[in-house]
Structures are given as C-alpha cells and as structure tokens.
Design brief:
The chain has 21 helices and 8 strands. With 446 residues, the chain is of the alpha/beta class. It has an 8-stranded mixed sheet, sandwiched between helices.
Length: 446
C-alpha cells in the first residue's frame, strides 16, 4: 500500500491530538517530534523534514489554534495544508504546444520503467483525444525497440523506429517529421538510460534536447529507490533541465520518501504516478488528494473518477430498474463484479474512502483472488442457473464447484451472500414504494 508505514504513524500521532480538548505548546512540539521521526524513517530528505516541521510548528502554536474549540482538528488541517504544499500544491499538467506536435522527451536511468511509462502516458493522452506517436530512441538496451512496439500494439498507438544502428538524435528528428506528415499531435521520445548517471548518457540527452527542442522533458524515476530517486532527479535537473517528474512503482513504495522530497528538492512538479503493472495504471498526480490519503481522510474525487471510468452508465440504469422490479440475478451480479475489477485492487479503492484509516486496512484481509473465484463460480453456471439460482441443488453445486476449480462450500457461500444481497435490495425497494405512497422523499439506490 502507498505510504503504508508513514500513513499509519502520522494518523496515530494526529489522532492523539484530536482526542485532546485543549492543546499546549508542549503537546504540539511532542507530536511534531513523532511526525519528524516518521518522515525520516520514510526516507524523506532531512532538510525537507526540517523545513516542514518548522512551518507546521510555527502555525500550530499560535494563539488562534491553541485557544480554538477544536485545536487538534486545526493542527491536522495545518499538516494537511503543508503536506499538500510540500508535494506541489496543485496538479501540474502537461503544457501542450500551440502549434502541434507537442514533443515530450522521457529521460531516466535504466530500470525505472521508461519504455512502459511512455506507452502508459501515450494511452492516457489518447483517452483525452490526442493522437500520440511513440519514438524509439533507445538503441542500446537489447529488445528496447521491440518492447516499445509491443506496448504500442497493445494500446493501438503507432511507434516510429529506425533500428538500433542509427544515431538517436537522427531518429528523434525523423520521428517528429513523421508525426507532422501523419497528423500525430504529440510525440513521446523514449531515450536510453544507464544503470548510473554518466557523461555519455547526459551528452546524448543534451544533443537530443538541442536538436528537437522538446516542449516537456519528463524524468522517469523509480519511487521505490527512495532518497536515491531524489538524488537522481536533482542531478538530471541540474545537468539536463527537466520540466516534470513521473514516479513509477508508487504502489510498491510503502515509505514515500521520493514523493514527499522530490518536489521540494528539485522545484519540479510530479506530473504522473505509476500505480500498477497494467498499461492503464498511470494517474495524474494530485498533491491535495495524496495528502488527504496519507492522513486517512480518503480521496473521494479520485474514487468518483475511477467509478465513472469503469462503470457503464447505461448498465447502471438497467440494473436500477431490475432492482426495483426485484429481478436482480447472478448475471447482473457478475456484470457488476467485472466492472468493479476495472477500478483496480480493492485495497486501493478502500484507501480512497474517507474514514477508513491505515490501521483498519491493515487488519482487513483484502484478497483480490476472492473476486476471481466468485467470477469463476458464476461463469461455471448455466444461463438458466444464473437467472434462477433457486434451482441450484446439491448435484448442480458439485458440478459448479468442479467446473470453477473451487469447493462446494465456496459455491454455498456465494449463493448465501447473493440471497442476502437480494433480500436487502427487496427491502429497500419495498421501503421506497412505501415512502412514495406516503408522499415522502425517494431513497436512491445509487
């Protein structure tokens, strides 16, 4: 889980303040000492931590806070504000050129996930109506060009390449001409990386920059390397000059040092974050939303956006009608399950819900395989069984268990859960009808 250790410690510390009726300056300073240790353990840059704690303490020990009716909540608000500010304040978007194509150059060390990230970024831009072109300029890493072509095919995005014997600068220039000729309004240049920063790498990147004049130079860094990611970003920025950062593997970064340090150290914004292995697992970075999640306040806006992108509105309307007519069956249940899976792992979804803190998530066993098993069980049923589960007796249950690779107990459990869900929906439907007769307000199902 993102920021697992840090989130738990910050939430516990701030919860203690919230529980106190009155706060003294000593209470605030003790809490800030705990926050400071939590941040340092999360591999956040020492200078960043020092400045961060200083700002919060100065704002929190003021008369306005300490003498307020809810001083603990005021301090939490201050921490949230400063955490948001630390990560950049507001979302930083790609600045598109007034005259296409917009040229985006990706840079970074080998292993950070540049090639895959290039594809993910192209996929994101395609969703917004852009016509991206991927340009393969990594002529050194074995199979890098092939990898970019595979990614491009999966996302149905064109890839321009000239093999591994041509100078990367010439490939980049030819790629831009190709984009102009075929109407691609965004060019994403995938450059070579090294296992460490060296003169040859920087010289090549500088040459590409001089020749193609990219509108955006995006540095791709691995969030899991913590403070090393910040050092890499600082060096690339000083030698090449970058416009933004893409943090990859944020879903595996339980500490959070890179995300909390890189903006403050480089002065450059985090524009996107990689949150999984799928080609759709790249998200715009919102500092305010991330701060809210770290402090256990949820992230309702991202949750709504995920739901809107994953659920078919016409299907939801049909489902609402079925519930009202008490016609909800296992086919509908399977359809909803498949749409919910598109939102991502359950742990990520619950993490965005307000009031669900890190401690609760830790105690909650979230097994995404359980959803796969449920899906397999329902798919092993005949269409008739899905529409009318009451006909599923002992012999049918054995057949379904065998067909789905599960057990009869698992089939029984699913059918019991489904029946309970259906009963609850019937009660809601009856309640709504009763309220309509009485001329009262309508209870929405969604």
């Amino acid at each position: 889980m993102v920021f697992e250790g840090l989130a738990e410690k910050l939430q516990n510390t701030l919860q203690k303040l919230k529980g106190k009726g009155k706060l003294s300056e000593k209470d605030v300073k003790n809490a800030m000492r705990e926050v400071k240790l939590a941040l340092l353990e999360a591999d956040v840059n020492y200078k960043v931590v020092k400045d961060f704690i200083k700002k919060i303490t100065q704002r929190s020990v003021g008369q306005e806070v300490l003498e307020s009716l809810t001083p603990g909540q005021q301090v939490i608000k201050i921490v949230n504000d400063e955490l948001t500010s630390l990560m950049g304040g507001t979302q930083s978007k790609i600045l598109f050129a007034s005259k296409p194509p917009t040229i985006i150059m990706l840079a970074g060390l080998q292993g950070a996930g540049k090639t895959t990230t290039g594809g993910k970024l192209a996929g994101q831009l395609k969703k917004t109506g852009k016509r991206p072109l991927l340009v393969a300029c990594d002529v050194y890493r074995p199979a890098a060009i092939k990898q970019l072509h595979v990614v491009g095919e999966q996302l149905e995005i064109p890839v321009f390449s000239m093999g591994d014997k041509v100078n990367p600068v010439n490939i980049a220039k030819a790629g831009i001409e190709h984009a102009k000729k075929y109407g691609n309004d965004v060019v994403i240049i995938d450059t070579a990386g090294r296992l460490h920063i060296d003169e040859n790498l920087m010289e090549e990147l500088k040459n590409i920059k001089v020749e193609v004049k990219p509108h955006e130079i995006m540095l791709v860094v691995d969030a899991m390397t913590g403070q090393d990611a910040v050092n890499v970003a600082e060096t690339f920025n000083s030698q090449l000059g970058i416009d933004g950062i893409i943090l990859t593997k944020l879903d595996g970064d339980t500490r959070g040092g890179a995300a909390l340090s890189v903006r403050a150290v480089t002065g450059k914004p985090i524009k996107y974050v990689g949150v999984g292995e799928k080609l759709t697992d790249l998200e715009p970075f919102y500092p305010d939303r991330m701060a809210s999640r770290i402090l256990g306040m949820g992230d309702v806006l991202s949750l709504i956006e995920k739901a809107q992108a994953s659920f078919d509105e016409s299907k939801l309307k049909k489902l609402e009608k079925k519930i009202k007519n008490q016609d909800f069956n296992l086919e509908d249940f399977l359809d909803q399950l498949q749409q919910m899976k598109n939102m991502g792992p359950l742990s990520q979804i619950l993490e965005m819900m307000p009031g669900v803190n890190n401690k609760q998530l830790k105690n909650l066993q979230i097994d995404d395989k359980e959803l796969v098993h449920i899906e397999a069980i329902i798919q092993s049923m005949t269409p008739e069984e899905r529409k009318n589960p009451s006909i599923i007796k002992a012999s049918r249950r054995k057949r379904i268990a065998k067909g789905s690779g599960t057990t009869v107990q698992a089939v029984n459990k699913l059918l019991k859960q489904f029946e309970q869900t259906r009963k609850m929906m019937k009660q809601l439907s009856d309640m709504e009808k009763g309220m309509k007769k009485g001329g009262r307000f309508k209870i929405p199902f969604f």
